[in-house]
Amino acid sequence: MANITMVSPSPTISQPSNVVLFFRYLRRNKGLALGVIILVALFLFTVIGLLVVNPKHAYPLSAGLKQPPSLKYPFGTDFFGRDLLAAMVVGMWQTAFIGLLAGGIGTLVGVVLGFTSAYFGGWIDAAVRTVCQILTPIPVLLIQVVVAGSLDKRDVTIFTMALIVAMLAWMGPTLVIRAQVMTMKERQFVAVAKLSGVSDMGIIFREILPNLLPFIAAAFVGQVFSAVFASFYLAVLGLGPLREPLLGNIIWAAQSQGAFFNGWWWWPLEPAFAMILILGALALVNMGLDELANPRVRRSE
Amino acid sequence: MSFKIVVKRLLFFVLVVWAASTIVFFIPRLSSRNAIRERFGELARTGGFSPGDIEKMIASMQQQFGLDKPIFEQYWQYLGNIMRLDFGYSLSKYPTTATEVIAQALPWTIGLLLVTTVLSFVMGTLLGAVAAWPKAPGWLRSLATPFILLTGVPPVIMGILLLFFIGFRLKWLPLGGAYSAGIVPTWSWSFFLDLMQHQILPALALILGSVGGWVLSMRGMGITIQGEDYVNFAEHKGLTGGRIFRDYYLRNALLPQVTGLALALGTVITSAVIVEGIFGLPGIGTALNLAIRANDFPVIYGIVIFITIAIAALMTILEFVYPLLDPRIREN
Amino acid sequence: MVKFKLATALAVLALAFTPVATFAQDAAPVAATEIVPTSALADVPRNETVILGWGVSGGSSIGTTNPWVLPGYTHQEGNNLLWEPLMYFGIYKNEFIPWLADSMDYTDDTFTALEIKLNKDAKWSDGSPVTSKDVVYTFEGQIKYETLPYHVQFAELVKSVTAKDDLTIEVTFNQPAPRFKFEVLTEKFDTGIPIVPAGYLSAQADPTKAPGRDEIPHSGPFDIVAWNNTQKIFNLREDWWAIKAGRMTAPAVKRVVVVNILNQPMDTVAQRIVNNEFDSSVDMRAQIIGNILQQNPEVQSWTGTESPYGYLDWWPNSLWMNDQLAPYSDPNVRKAISLAINRDQINEVLYEGAKIATIYPFPLYPNLQAFADSPEVKAEEAKYEPGKYDLDESAKLMEAAGWAKNGDGLWEKDGKTFDATIQAFENIHGDIAPILAEMLRQAGFDSNVNFGTDAYQNMVDGKAGLYMFGHGASLFDPFEALNLFDGKYSSGIGSSAGNNRFSRYSNPEYDKLIDAIAPLDSKDPKFIAGAAQALGIYWRDTIDVPVIQWLHRIPYNNHYWKNWPSSTNVGMGTNGAFWAHTGMLVITGLQPSGAK
Predict the structure, then answer these.
(1) A261 interaction partners in chain B (CB closer than 8 Å)
(2) Which chains does A contact via 3+ CB–CB distances below 8 A?
(3) Is there a contact between B184 and C226 if contact means CB atoms under 8 Å apart?
(4) What is the pTM of this model?
């Protein structure tokens, strides 16, 4: 699934078309390796799960009630009669979908705007920066809450959730990328390239972009992280698509039914750990990418 | 700092507050919902009013809140009120004003968030810098790893887990509230201890999950910088490791990190909304959460704009501090 | 940054501040602020203190004790310990409880005049007596101020209010007002009015805006000594008039602490009760209270340790439908929705098998249970099978109405699925609404839940078709509940529906039945026959789909305090909620258990 696309650009950076080298590198970079392994495992869990499990069982009244994990229900069932295994499979897929879509949109817009702004400067920079800076201090969650709250309930779907989350998520990456390009512009290698007559595009794609990849990757991971986060918060406030087994929705439902107190510990803990795995793996990958993409660091090891 | 720059900064500050106020004013009005009616609906739902009363009460409240006037007039008056930090009366706690609701909640949030944010920023930045510093001892560099792993745990989940394991199962710390029931706040040692006991879990929930974020970004920054020629030069000049770490490395890497700090405040507030709720702390987060549930729009406006002003003010200050941190920008 | 000319920038800055000048601030009411004890509070031992888990500023503003201040719903958060009515009503004993008034009687057969006699010992907290002047002031205020909750009743019905002497008041009415004494002047559940002090309020610039704080004289047994957004603390007033008057023995509770648990997870509240931190709290869902009782044997519910744990509220919930809005305007479609509801499954999933699901729009209090068991009602029930669950029959009705199932198994007509979004309230319908939505979905209705704050508004406007809500109507006979569906209350779409009139049902045949039974006594066989017939039409046309009886499941912790109300210990007959108007009677009736 889309999880993989995040990792796949890496080989092209380290050693184009040499997958063996990449795996050899993974052995040295344990953090990245662990992150990738977790992501692959989650990916396999979701894909195999979608093939094996009946997605209908992720919805209420489809399984036994409040069953602890057993052979029949490996992940147990919840108060509303969802099979939590099916709910986790579908919820994982939906959470990943929201995260990747919203994170992708936010990062893409941010990179394009950040580059344009910082590299060309002048009124473009002024305009982009002013708009970003004016919008940045505004607490995004509240705007999201207000927007989500004024939508018709039938229009709140996984897809609109992603759009609501992405809508105000591009200013952060824009400013970060812009700040980096600004510093980068002052560096010697860019000045040298400029003096030797390399075109704007050439400088952007050949000199600056490769150096910025750690930051773009970090921005993307950050965006996915905050997208999952934001959708979770909306869910907690009862503004998400309530029926869907989004990881956030499951935790919220468990909380509001007093799952811990009633002894149904598996109900909130499973999605909580799934969330931890997703975000933890992303963090590890992000870290690994920093090393992988910065040749000088590798040299020094 | 010239007069012109100061005016520019102030103008920027005003623009930020204006943009936030305008968005917050118009978005709810795009939908056909009526907050006052909803508020009374909430009361009528539980049986407090007999049929027929409600419409009259709503009309009277509409007048009270100026909602019967043309929208532009409302907007104009609203902007004027914001300049005075007057957000009007709370809808659900009338006649308390939104400003009073904020003032009552603010100390709790400042106490909790400022301390936790600063703590996690300092811990994270140092650990991140060390983690990226090849000459640091191995055990010191590995200190960062558990925190990076904890990044995967959003404060909300961390709060729920801490509450479950430490509060419910081990019964080491109180389950919720700002202090024990029936105690009246006084300037005494026993009250302070009681207060602290109630703050530990929420503070941990916010710190544990957020240190890793700072570690990560600082580490990324550090890795980029340590290959730089000026760092190599300093090494060859024979400066001590500690000096290079502090003067060349930490200082240069800190610049984007500080930008992040201002941006993070918005996110931290977001986490606070729910973490405060989990532990029943009467801060801004709780006030906001309750206001959202009651659709108490003067309080929502007030809190959003108040937070915006706080963050915008902080960013404006950072604009002034920036040149001090990065000499290259100062020259421009 | 954009290169503004300095002058332009300054002009914009100046412009930004002009609104400040153009609007002077309106005259503001006195601010309600936190109540902070001026000196350290005396220590009251835990076993003389009642600690309640509830809200302190959800329905009132901090510092507002004056019951006339909007939103007029401040009694629930402890202010019911400050204010008293002329009479209370004990619903489980079916009798009036004289309080500030010794008597309150209609003086003629046509219910157009009422005489109130006050208790001679009744006193305000400042020591001055409660007199007819206070009662007249209270009543005239209701007429004068539109924002007060009973303004409409007073303005429409009351002709005059006169003090005949210090303790006697006469009220005359424009038209027969047989329910005025019970509905307006008597406090029960959350309705009825408290008597306010004329002296203090008439001295205020605007008596509907003066917060009152801790200075307003009150007649109730407690004083407020501290109030912030964490808690509210009340101390017992030893010179409470009711002790001398013989209404009550001296209360054992010396202090009441209301702890704010709004916005706290239910888990935490439940655990704090188990830990004996709280003596009682907000009502709970069936599962949670079951576990509380299991984990701490000292905690009891209304029904002891047995399911269903709660007392019956007057608020049975239905899936209401806007009977004027297509596709809900078709009785067959409404019936199809009814046939999709599996009541056995509701009992099993939500209430561990307790029989909570219902087919009636009224609570089954004893007299109403007798009505439901009458052969007339049984016959109608057999005829229309209102509780039937049959997906095939539901599907047949839908097909007959021109709907067809699409690829997702959802009913579709003209390219649109069936919008069955249920408007509901998260804090009370968080468990049942998703279950109902799923049942409808399994029957092919594109169902979802809207827990937004606009849910109630959508009901009132009639924009949406499907609502989860209660019927707060009948307490004794079925008339008020059936009267809810009378055509004269059914306003068209676009106009607001009155409270509990969301069905907008209109049928002359039904209205004629209601008109016929209106003047009849509820014991009259003709009344029972007519009411049964009306109930039959309610079922035949599926005016709404009754779903569950409403229960309040309140945990009572007996560790420090006993004599909590229960089904076997009805006490004065109040409903057992400490937050209701009658909650003061619950608190003052508590007895120490002797612990610690």
Answers:
(1) 168
(2) B, C
(3) yes
(4) 0.81
